[in-house]
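Quick start: load a record and inspect it. Here is Phospholipid-transporting ATPase:
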Amino acid sequence: RVSFVLLVNQANLSSGLIIFVSSLSFLHQYSLEDEPSNLDEMPLMMSEEGFENDESDYHTLPRARVKQRQRGLGWLLMGGWKILCGSCCDCLARTCRRTKELKARTVWLGHPEKCEEKYPKNAIKNQKYNFFTFVPGVLYQQFKFFLNLYFLVVACSQFVPALKIGYLYTYWAPLGFVMAVTMVREAVDEVRRYQRDKEMNSQLYSKLTVRGKVQVKSSDIQVGDLIIVEKVGIKSIPTVKHFVFLGSCFIRTDQLDGETDWKLKVAVVCTQRLPALGDLFSINAYVYAQKPQLDIHSFEGNFTREDGDPQIHESLSIDHTLWASTIVASGTVIGVVIYTGKETRSVLNTSSPKNKVGLLDLELNRLTKALFLAQVVLSIVMVALQGFVGPWFRNLFRFIVLFSYIIPISLRVNLDMGKSAYGWMIMKDENIPGTVVRTSTIPEELGRLVYLLTDKTGTLTQNEMIFKRLHLGTVSYGTDTMDEIQSHVVQSYAQVIILLPAAAPPKVRKSVSSRIHEAVKAIALCHNVTPVYETHASVNGETESTAAEADQDFSDDNRTYQASSPDEVALVRWTESVGLTLVNRDLTSLQLKTPAGQILTYYILQIFPFTSESKRMGIIIREETTGDITFYMKGADVAMASIVQYNDWLEEECGNMAREGLRTLVVAKKSLSEEQYTDFENRYNQAKLSIHDRALKVSAVVESLEREMELLCLTGVEDQLQADVRPTLELLRNAGIKIWMLTGDKLETATCIAKSSHLVSRSQDIHVFRSVSNRGEAHLELNAFRRKHDCALVISGDSLEVCLRYYEHEFVELACQCPAVVCCRCSPTQKAQIVHLLKQHTANRTCAIGDGGNDVSMIQAADCGIGIEGKEGKQASLAADFSITQFKHIGRLLMVHGRNSYKRSAALGQFVMHRGMIISTMQAVFSSIFYFASVPLYQGFLMVGYSTIYTMFPVFSLVLDQDVKPEMALLYPELYKDLTKGRSLSFKTFLIWVLISIYQGGILMYGALVLFESEFVHVVAISFTALILTELLMVALNIRTWHWLMVLAEFLSLGCYIASLAFLNEYFDLGFITTPAFLWKVSVITVVSCLPLYIIKYLKRKFSPPSYSKLSS
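Running the structure step on this input writes:
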């Protein structure tokens, strides 16, 4: 969690300095300094003939879609007030916080106390509130919703005597209960976040001091500390056992940038030469480092040792640094901490967590506004029918308070408790073990998703390469025929031993055995892999010398391989499995062990590393026994096709392997004479010394060798996918979810995985968006892309940045039409920006899923964030709203739990509103009949009991209802498409419930008034009892799948009401309610209010059944 400079690599117990540096990031902003500030948007599809690339012409191009919003009174009333208030609050917050300016720093080795400034604490903090802001923060989050603010105003109005209706507790008790439930839930979430943060901040690390090694908590690490990174099992920052080259180590950065290649890091030369670790404190040295930056791919600094004569100065670059969220894969590292906490690259690239609000909550908020409008209109009508006589303004407010039950306060209570119940059900589901709900406010979002943005490494793939195919042109070997290759290798090396003393045989057509021998030998030699041997602890607990062990012990048990690419490790492991084993390597030679146990030594004369431009790597080696010089090369088929001799099978077989999702490499060789190599070496050294165009001259010399090379074989390596990735992606596609893969990995790798995971189906074309660097290129490439139909898009982060700078709207519009999109070389900030773009341009719900620290920004930006607990840590899991253990669990999470949560909350919300509207209708009928008097129909406990013990349990039992069985929802994912249309809760369904409420409220009130005989108290008794029975029957009408708890809730509520009648003599005539007349009158009214609805439901099910009921039957 810190960033530091690599001071020491401890493989040979000599000290070196690695700059250990960690970094964090804010939302990415495009730098437009190099572009004219007044560039207009250019409409696409203008004629390419008339298009000019001159940047100066852009000033005269027509504007597109740029309209200035008129900001008048209408804008202010329709939501502008929110924007103004938000801007004022942001301005006030910025003024209060006064963000500290980031500056360059001087860091003294091992002396944090010498730091001139105070740097942030090295602690993780995912909490939303602190002790002082908790109560104000929670209250603000609750009362910013119209619903809760409305209840607060109504409750406060009861302190005004002229507006008081009924008892205070009937208004304040429900509101207090709602606030208490909300605060308890938020407090529990905060405590959990605090405990998770505390666990992470308490992880122990080794710190080097004058007294030796001490253990410190990660939160206690300071700028200037010397930290030893060690390997303990599989921790988030493993250590070093043995390293490849002196003063170097390999690190993995997939948790930071998504790249799977291992990176080689080197120590500061000055400190690497120190004889002992303690000498780091005897020298007077410091590191001057640039100020904290967002860029994870660059670093500038200087190392200075002052006690030497002369002073030693050494420049530092990205090659000397280890950022936070990276993992040491080899070697033991000692580094000086440069950045901590909020100033690390990984944190700077992470956006701060925001409170997420579900779409269902926003929809219910809109409906409550509509209800409030209806309430005001109804109140005005009542006052108008009175003739606006007397203090009509006071009467208007009394009517508004009187009809306040039209918006029931129990709505929020029921929904919040429902959300908690859904979270509990998700975590208890045995089919998705280990799932954790970290944000309990948005489970319904799982049922409304349209876009799924997924990481690649660790999410879709395991990042474990498996060798799958070897093709020699005439014969192909798969995993089931590798034993044949092994027998050929054993046979060929047995022959080599016999033929060594004899003269070379005459050239004839090579046999399959000799071709396999050449291919396996080439694969075993042409790479950058180094074998590593784990150290063993001796009796006294100290570690034996790794160097000595590497010379003596080549046993297979403790050998592991290190390389910058997992592909190369897979190839070398495969050659080991067929009998040819890489046992040792240093800067000048490598050694292979044959099946017979013989050690063959080869001298490395030259090595040409892989680059993204050349797409190939080469090595020139000399065999020790014969002195033969051979140039081996391997690379991508596009790069190698023109280098190898003519053949008629390479292109076709590469296509076949690519369709299987395999990553292909073409292997070739060329034998060189002593004269040829000497000539090449002279020209190569001369090119490396040239001042001008060095890179061009060097590549030209190397290319002179890359001609007419002998094609040896084609290899196919598969990146192992996570379990059941293919069926899960197919399930999500069938559910209408569009999947975008955002990865920091290379374009070729990302395309390969998109094919192998079936993210892109075999029948679909792939459009690779070529690299663009300016507006003109982007314009032409977008036009080319527009002409393609039904093809997946693959684009790199750099090209994406250019497109979004000039053609944001057009690009998003085109990309959203694609069945799948793959964005490679994406920074963490770009991932979050893509999420924001989709939310802004499509207004659809987005979900982001990932497992690494580089996915945190994306997860927090999405409407619904899902984290996978990966092998390398829990950063994504801790920052997410939902945490799962495997990617395949997302299918059940969305199809089953997402569906149930949304359907149940929609039914629950509308039923609670129906419960309020029906009693408000009865109040309106009562007031209109009794001369528009603003007098309540039911008072005191009747109103409290109606919304609590009499109807609460049956209504809340709707959270157990389900329209489709889980097996059916997974078998027919197409059912999920209906959910995204939001038909379960819309103005149409809401209007139906309004009409039902008006009908039932009218029948209940008019029926009671018609059937009562003498006293008014009988009206209250008849209507209220019929109301309770109607509500219980309506719950039964809406249930689709009965649960035993639902039946219990119905009878429990009915029993509570009957039992409470004995104590309600203040409201009811106990003598009347025990008469047969009361019973038949209540029964008639209840039947008239409910029977027509049962008949309508039966007819609708028979003649127009919903899609899910067709499947169920």
